[in-house]
Amino acid sequence: MTNLAPSASIQMVDLRKQYLRIKNEIDTAIEKVLLSTAFIQGKEVQDFSQDLKQYTGAGYVIPCANGTDALQIAMMALGLQPGDEVILPVHTYVATAEVLALLHLKPVFADVDSQHFTLDVKQIENKITAKTKAIVPVHLYGQCADMEAILVIAKKHNLYVIEDVAQALGAVYTFSNGDKKQAGTMGDIGTTSFFPSKNLGCYGDGGAMFTNDATLAEKLKMIANHGQKIKYHHESIGVNSRLDTLQAAILQVKLKYLPEYEKARQAVAAYYDASLASISQIKIPVRSKTSTHVFHQYTLRIANGKRNALKKFLEERGIPTMIYYPVPLHFQKAYQQEQFGKGSFPVTEQLSEEVISLPIHTEMTENELHYITQAIKEFFSNGK
Fold first, then answer.
1. Coil, helix or strand for 305?
2. Tens-digit pLDDT profile for residues 87-104
3. Taking a C-beta distance cutoff of 8 angstroms, is the pair 107, 335 a contact?
4. Which pairs from 284-291 meet CB under 8 Å and 24+ separation?
5. What is residue 4's predicted lDDT score, i.e. its pLDDT?
6. Residues 6+ apart with CB under 8 A from 301
7. Mean pLDDT score, 341-367
């Protein structure tokens, strides 16, 4: 049997402990906003935008209300029209396809790379038609898609690239010439989410867009603010999508700790690697040769159909797990297309049956990690 469980319950992401460690700074930042009563478009919003710009190296950072809005606004700013086609990975969260449907664009699904779970670049050109206007690489689980190859294809076919960096903010991509760029700053527009469980998460909803193009930046900013540059003068169709001042103040504090948080997550991943690599029925995360990994998730592949049994076994021992994602997009009722049945995207379909993500966060203790890994070893040693 495994050693006794830790005295406190294990969390997938322990936001309470993370808050308590920086409580004084967070509380001070919140109180400052409360006293100012500048709850919308307060000074902290602009200050955070500037800090995030400096951190990422992006030319412009435009905050918004959430990551889904960021994707929608990006596609609106690029002038995509109903019927235009957009290529995206089928192994991703629904938001990527959702905004396409809302804008009456056509999602064109592609499978993912079996090693890194990001868009399989070998499939992209076969998906391109006269109606294709953009590619949306999703930097999944914490590392970048093969951006150099994607950018080459996009340039060849005159396509836009919208990076979905919600799970990989802070990851660094290295090009073949040695140039290094942060996730979200390589395509035409990068989008991210500050959902509380993200590596940089606020205490509610929030998001942002990145671009190096001044004209695009102006469009993004205008669309996010009801299509206006000047109050009551609406130049285009827009939306109401603002990062509120309280969330910006919280994010400004947490951004200072993001490099520290990244190292903490990487240390957890290294512990898992060392403990689990020898188990033949487990495939630990494969690191990309071109991208650092910031480990939004630590995702295993479990062979021989044992994933669900392992999940149940761990839950019985107080160890939470998550499956990202159990139902591929082409099997979702809202996004089913007649031509895509079982076997259409074999890698994604296999991943949906094999992947399982373990707890990983900035406050994990060695006792918790030992308990989790010993439980996994027990499961496989018992031949379950």
1. coil
2. 999 999 999 999 999 999
3. yes
4. 285/141, 286/115, 286/116, 287/143, 288/116, 288/143, 288/144, 288/146, 290/144, 290/146, 290/147, 290/148, 290/173, 290/174, 290/175, 291/139, 291/143, 291/144, 291/168, 291/171, 291/172, 291/173, 291/174, 291/183
5. 63
6. 282, 283, 351, 354, 355
7. 97
Pick the closest to residue 364 from 310, 315, 320, 308 (CA basis). 320
What SS3 state is found at 33? helix
H/E stretch holding 65: none
| Terminal-to-terminal C-alpha distance of the chain | 14
Handedness of CA 371, 374, 380, 384 (dihedral sign): negative
CA 336 – CA 327 distance, rounded (Å): 12
Residue 293 pLDDT > 80: yes
What contacts 117, CB < 8 A, 6 or more positions away?
Answer: 91, 140, 141, 299, 351, 355
Give the pLDDT band (50/70/90) at residue 266. very high
The pTM assigned to this predicted structure is 0.96
**Helix or strand holding residue 161 (H, E):** strand 160-164
Top CATH class of 257-381 equals alpha beta
- CA dist 29 and 23 (Å) reads 10
Percent of the chain having pLDDT more than 90?
93
Peptide bond into 141 cis (omega under 30): no
Of the chain, the percentage scoring pLDDT greater than 70 comes to: 98
Distance between CA atoms of 180 and 290, rounded to whole angstroms?
9
Domain boundaries, the chain: 17-252, 257-381
pLDDT at residue 229 in the model: 87
The highest-level CATH class for domain 17-252 is: alpha beta
pLDDT tier at 63, thresholds 50, 70, 90: very high
pLDDT at 62: 98
Provide the 3-class DSSP secondary structure of residue 282. Answer: strand
- Is residue 59 within 8 Å of residue 211, measured between CB atoms? yes
Q: For residue 193, list its beta bridge partners.
A: 207
Q: Do the Cβ atoms of 224 and 242 come closer than 8 Å?
A: yes
| Contact predicate 30/208, CB 8 Å | no
Residue 31, CA atoms < 13 Å, CB-side half-sphere: 6
Q: Which DSSP helix (H) or strand (E) runs through 223?
A: helix 214-224
What element of type H or E holds 134?
Answer: strand 132-135
From residue 224, give the alpha-carbon distance in Å to each of 76, 191, 208.
10, 13, 10
